[in-house]
Specification:
By secondary structure, this protein is an alpha/beta fold. Helices cover about 50% and strands about 15% of the residues. β5, α6 and β6 form a beta-alpha-beta unit. The structure holds pyridoxine-5'-phosphate.
Length: about 260
């Protein structure tokens, strides 16, 4: 049996960050999405933030119109974003927490605490045939809340693991954070939730995460766009994909031995 392929979603937000540093149209995130498709990405992720600091409304429009890969539209649970999602009907909508002053999405969504509000958003998106995913910390309470909300997908926030990995990859904190991700992915499977993961992953930190059998998709952006400066976007994506596939194949072989 060949190992189930782990999907790679490429987050193109930071192509837009560079474009917006100067205004104008270069570099174009839609061109990056096309290159990601040529390099074998399974999907494109773009986060339309409320302050439009990177991806713009026009980018979303053009991604929907010209990219064949499924679009994972990251959005805050706000009426404005809901209206945009319902207008464009992307393949998936990943609901993320958003604070204006944060540099990036710093933690997971409080699916448990926000039940009443989120229930409405999950319902409206699902009714429009948009696959809803909730970006949550690898916390059993949040996973159970996601299931109660009727979200078919969760994306586990790998930020705490990646930070610990960078500080000391073999240290207790990195191992503990990895174990949290492993337990959360197993629980997601038990709860019937499709499990994705992402945030802060690199060629090195992705390996133990890709080895988690119940994960079906990783969403990676910042590191790939950074690597693209040195080697080009297609090479960076192809290398990431090869590392993910190898880590998954090695883990399967180890389980069988
Ligand atoms: N998944 C989600 C839900 C995110 O918000 C982000 C960051 O915007 C990512 C994945 C990708 O994280 P990174 O850019 O650090 O790879």
């Amino acid at each position: 049996m060949t190992p189930r392929n782990l999907r790679l979603g490429v987050n193109i937000d930071h192509v837009a960050t560079i474009r917006n540093a100067r205004g104008g149209g270069h570099p174009d995130p839609v061109r990056a999405a096309r290159q990601a498709a040529d390099a074998g990405a399974d999907g494109i992720t773009a986060h339309l933030r409320e302050d439009r600091r990177h991806i713009s409304d026009d980018d979303i429009q053009r991604l929907i119109a010209s990219i064949d890969l499924p679009l994972n539209f990251e959005m805050a649970a706000t009426p404005e974003m809901l209206e945009i999602a319902l207008r464009h009907r992307p393949h998936a909508a990943c609901i993320v927490p958003e604070k204006r002053l944060e540099v990036t999405t710093e933690g997971g969504l409080d699916a448990a605490g926000g039940h009443n509000v989120l229930k409405r958003y999950c319902g409206r998106l699902s009714d429009a045939d948009i696959r809803v995913s909730l970006f949550i910390d690898p916390d059993p309470r949040q996973l159970e809340a996601a299931q109660a909300l009727g979200a078919p997908v969760v994306e586990l926030h790998t930020g705490a693991y990646c930070e610990a990995f960078i500080a000391d990859m073999a240290g207790t904190r990195a191992q503990d954070e990895l174990a949290r991700l492993q337990r959360a992915a197993a629980l997601a499977q038990d709860l019937g939730l499709e499990c994705h993961a992402g945030h802060g992953l690199t060629y090195d930190s992705v390996k133990p995460v890709a080895a988690i059998a119940s994960l079906v998709e990783l969403n990676i952006g910042h590191f790939l766009i950074g690597e693209a400066i040195y080697v080009g976007l297609e090479s960076a994506i192809m290398r990431m994909r090869a590392i993910m596939n190898q880590a998954r194949a090695d883990a399967l072989a180890a389980r069988r031995a």
